[in-house]
Amino acid sequence: MDNNNKAQVPASLLLNPVHLLSLGFGSGLVPKLPGTLGSLVGVGLFILLPVVDWKIYLAIVIIALLLGIFLCSATAKALEVHDHPAIVWDEIVGIFITLFMVPKQWLWILLGFILFRVFDILKPWPISMVDKRMKGGLGIMLDDVIAGLFSLIIIQITLYLL
Fold first, then answer.
1. Which of 36, 57, 58, 75 is most enclosed, with most CB atoms within 10 A?
2. CB neighbours of 116 closer than 8 A, spacing ≥ 6?
3. Is the preceding peptide bond at 126 cis, omega within 30 degrees of 0?
């Protein structure tokens, strides 16, 4: 497969825990808008996560990010595509970053989801540069990390101003 090939991913990959996670528990296998569905999985996990101290939440995000470098790299190699659309662990981590220290209220969660999707889809600079130049698991993860950070900054500024 090449980078432009969006060939269907065999569902049998979900039997491997590495691919199960990188494919967002199967959400990445949907034919339309897998990144959006993967982001929604991230929102669901955020909602299910008990309220924890910000240091513990940050540790969870860092672990998910580091794990994601490995997961996304392994699945990209298995699919023989650098950043197959079905790989959505990066969206999950991007949402976790977006919602860091954000109140667990629907308004803020919805705002975070929308902001993250806008940055992830439009890929303004430097997200676009990272997306084009960085390869491997780190490259797959990093553009969504930056999109999450941009979204987080906007939400935190909004929270501060209100």
1. 75
2. 39, 91, 94, 95, 98, 147, 148, 151
3. yes
Backbone angles phi, psi at 101, to 5 degrees: 60, 35
Tokens 């803020």 belong to 108
- Going by C-alpha positions, the residue among 118, 96, 5, 117 that lies closest to residue 47 is 96
pTM greater than 0.90 (yes/no): yes
What's the chain's length in residues? 162
Token pair of 22, please? 């990188």
Tens digit of pLDDT for each residue in 30-86?
A: 989 999 999 999 999 999 999 999 999 999 999 999 999 999 999 999 999 888 999
